[in-house]
Amino acid sequence: MLSLPFATAGLTARITAHKAKVPRLAPAVLILCAAACATSPLGRDQLILFPDDQIAQMGVTAYQELKDSTPVTTNREVNGYVKCVADELIRALDPAVSEGDEGTDQWEVSVFADDQVNAFALPGGKIGVYQGLLSVAENQDQLATVVAHEIAHVLSRHSNERISTQYATSTGLELASAVAGQATPVKQTLFGLLGVGAQVGILLPFSRSQESEADLVGLELMAKAGFDPRQSVNLWRNMIAEGGGEGGDTPPEFLSTHPSGESRIRALEETMPKVLPLVEQARAGGRQPDCGEAG
Prior knowledge:
The protein is mainly α.
């Protein structure tokens, strides 16, 4: 893996030269990928330019700023319920990850006192759930669907991939200094790329390939934790209904930044036979989540 100085000097000049000739910058991306390509959990090629600990620190900074600006609920039952679901998922991760390999000593979970139907996970082991999500995620398995999906973005290094691609194709994104100081458009863009989204005033949806990947990686994670993956289909149907149907004008914030619809549900249903045996194995091994209700 290569650090920030890699994408400077001659390479930056080469990228700039290509901008006027090739709108999508395919040659420049190919040059970068030859030296900095990684592979996602599902075997997809990724451009990864930054050390994971640097991306993790960005995630920690973004998370702290959100906590400073958005009230966290004091409801013990709600906090306990969400943390229980998140903890069960974290325990099902590879030990190196669950113990803080993402750049922090432990994963941290916050429930924000906000009616948004939304959630996120950030590099550095930070998970945020908005209280409004609990009105759509009707049980522990449906909540686990969303949290596992967001954790899957972190496991799949989607933030690093997005920031790397943005850096490779835009000399104007000054990443090294963007996380410090006052709020700026560059800083908002950076936090959006990390996966914070509308909470910092800018929507930068993950790509469809990243979303599909997070769906399937998350489905496997929740199954390994002992949650019922079949509830993922019910969760997405609830999300669609919350937005007034497929063509609803006001979908939940979470749904507005994620592709949805019957094609997504079909992909989950097609994968279900592969993950259901994982639930049986998990439960046979003593993983039987019992987080109760939100209260």
